[in-house]
Design goal:
The chain is of the alpha/beta class. The strands form four sheets. Strands 9-8-7-3-2-1-11-10 form an eight-stranded parallel sheet. A five-stranded antiparallel sheet has the order 12-13-14-18-16. It has three domains: 8-105 and 186-458, Glycosidases (TIM Barrel); 112-171, Alpha-Beta Complex (Oligo-1,6-glucosidase, domain 2), CATH 3.90.400.10; 481-547, Golgi alpha-mannosidase II (Immunoglobulin-like, Sandwich). Helices cover 25% and strands 14% of the residues. The longest helix has 18 residues, at 297-314. The structure holds alpha-D-glucopyranose. Alpha-D-glucopyranose is lined by residues 63, 66, 103, 174, 210-211, 264, 325-326.
């Protein structure tokens, strides 16, 4: 990647760091920014163009830092602002841009705004920045409406007044520690534009926008009656969002064309999704349709073609995502009978075949990295970490408790990374230190050190693939050399060309695909996710081919 390229994000490989679990610089069992700084050589060697950090702001951690108490600071557990500035600078020095996570839908109940709203009482201007309402029923003991929190349970909590009596209710689409902001209030609008500037001023290359489809609410707060017409839901995907993000885009562009906005938009309607990527709105958004699709050609092929078509229509690059800090790790998910992902299906003890899952995760990585657009990888994906089983009494994620203990929550993909050694803490923290989430006892073969010594490891595959992706003009961004065209090899195969001399072939079926036949005769393998013997591509394998 040319570091001056304003279009770097169109074809970038972007690595998600979950700071609590990446590397522990101060030996307290929790990751921090000093830990990340010390591991920048690892990220540079992996070959990523940018790092997206999940929130590092001061936070009571009611939702892993997505409850922000101060948008302009760094939680003391992670370091301080100077450490963040140093990290952004050090990363740039090794060619890695930084993407900051901004959480505009809600703040922490410990944020100064919410505390003053509580203190100021009903009807005060301080409360107008939020959604405070009186309850329904005699004495107001029922929530103002029936909205349900994304984490389960009511989306409203009732506060207690200074006299100790129950008082008004406030809206929180997530945990009670995350009160929703009122985006009709000018302070909320101005504050966020200033927060964007704060981080762009410090060299951020991009902003990841948390829960980007939820900010705007119908101020009459009506109950949800499905189905609603597009843009008419009381709080999902409302039209007002387009204007909010157009204003954000102007802020980003005032810093130059290389500063980007990336939306977290969970929207089932692909055309509505694409509207956020029109010129002048967001640059890019995570492709959850692809990420959650089951491991079959019949599911992934239409997902890919719809993605490409919709993004082409608005001139935005596609993104390809296999995992993040909210979803079950690919090696675990792809080894199950049900290989698609859905939040509502998460349960304890779903059986998985780890060898099969790992094989498919390898094939999926090569498939995703060969597609036109940006590739996002979540820390530990390059190590093939499975979803870890966290003992119930150590689960931190509010999704677990709010589901009444039914959903295991998201901690299984948030376990501290294993760097080296034969037992916990695997070089994450100094020996003998207990990590904030327990690491499994059988991860010795998954450490970075072990995988660096093994040419057949997941890490070796990711390094080789990212290096090839960066080197070959056909891969990554679209462009004249990188044109995409399907190659037809049967219903169980996803095969496509990039430019004139590159083909990616993934076999989802049981029958091996003959690579020496038909259109592919004379092509040679550049990289494969599993050995291809006698010119045959076995099940659950991707190969990249070239012709000279
Ligand atoms: C996003 C984050 C998730 C968080 C939620 C609320 O979905 O990715 O981790 O819990 O927003 O901020």
């Amino acid at each position: 990647m040319n570091s001056d390229d304003p279009d770097w994000w169109r074809g970038a490989a972007i690595y998600q760091v979950y700071p609590r679990s990446f590397a522990d610089g101060n030996g307290d069992g929790m990751g921090d920014l000093a830990g990340v700084r010390s591991r920048l050589p690892y990220l540079a060697a992996l070959g990523v163009d940018a790092v997206w950090f999940t929130p590092w702001y001061p936070s009571p951690m009611a939702d892993g830092g997505y409850d922000v108490a101060d948008y302009r600071g760094v939680d003391p557990r992670f370091g301080d602002l100077a450490e963040a500035e140093g990290l952004i600078e050090d990363a740039l020095a090794v060619g890695i841009r930084t993407i900051i996570d901004v959480v505009p839908n809600h703040i922490s109940d410990q944020h100064e705004w919410f505390r003053s709203a509580l203190a100021a009482g009903p009807g005060s201007p301080e409360r107008d920045r939020f959604w405070f309402r009186d309850g329904r029923g005699p004495g107001g003991e029922q929530a103002p409406n029936g909205w349900v929190s994304e984490f389960g349970g009511p989306a409203w909590s009732r506060v207690t007044g200074p006299d100790g009596e129950p008082e008004q209710w406030y809206l929180h689409l997530f945990a009670p520690g995350q009160p929703d902001l009122n985006w009709h209030h000018p302070d909320v609008v101005t504050e966020h534009e200033e927060v964007l500037r704060f981080w762009f001023d410090r060299g951020a290359g991009g902003i990841r926008i948390d829960s980007a489809a939820l900010l705007a609410k119908d101020p009459s707060l009506p109950d949800v009656t499905e189905p609603t017409a597009p843009g008419q839901h009381p709080y999902v995907d409302r039209e007002e969002l387009q204007e909010i993000y157009r204003a954000w885009r102007k802020v980003a562009e005032s810093y130059g064309p290389d500063r980007v906005l990336i939306g977290e938009l969970w929207l089932p309607d692909a055309e509505r999704f694409a509207r956020y990527l029109r010129p002048g709105v967001l640059h890019s958004a995570f492709n959850f349709d692809f990420m959650t699709a089951p491991w079959t050609a019949a599911d992934l092929r239409p997902s890919i073609s719809n993605t490409l078509e919709l993004h082409d229509g608005v001139g935005a690059p596609a993104t390809w995502v296999l995992s993040n800090h909210d979803v079950t790790r690919p090696v675990t998910r792809y080894g199950r009978t049900e290989t698609g992902f859905a939040f509502e299906r998460k349960r304890f003890g779903v059986p998985t075949d780890p060898a099969l899952g790992r094989r498919r995760a390898r094939a999926a990585a090569l498939l995703a990295m060969a597609l036109p657009g940006a590739y996002y990888l979540y820390q530990g994906e390059e190590l093939g970490l499975p979803e870890a089983d966290i003992p119930r009494d150590r689960i931190d994620d509010p999704m677990h408790a709010r589901s009444g203990g039914v959903d295991p929550g998201r901690d299984g993909c948030r376990v501290p990374l294993p760097w080296s050694g034969a037992e916990p803490p695997y070089g994450f923290s100094p020996a003998g230190v207990e990590t904030w989430l327990p690491q499994p006892p059988d991860w010795a073969a998954l450490t970075v050190a072990a995988q660096e010594a093994d040419p057949g490891s997941m890490l070796a595959l990711y390094r080789a693939a990212l290096a090839l992706r960066a080197r070959r003009p056909e891969l990554g961004a679209s462009g004249p050399d990188a044109a995409f065209a399907w190659t037809e090899l049967g219903p169980d195969v996803i095969a496509f060309r990039r430019g004139a001399r590159f083909v990616s072939v993934t076999n989802f079926g049981d029958a091996p695909v003959d690579l020496a036949a038909g259109d592919l005769a004379g092509w040679t393998a550049l990289l494969a996710s599993a050995p291809t013997e006698g010119g045959l591509l076995p099940a659950d394998t991707t190969v990249w081919l070239t012709v000279h």
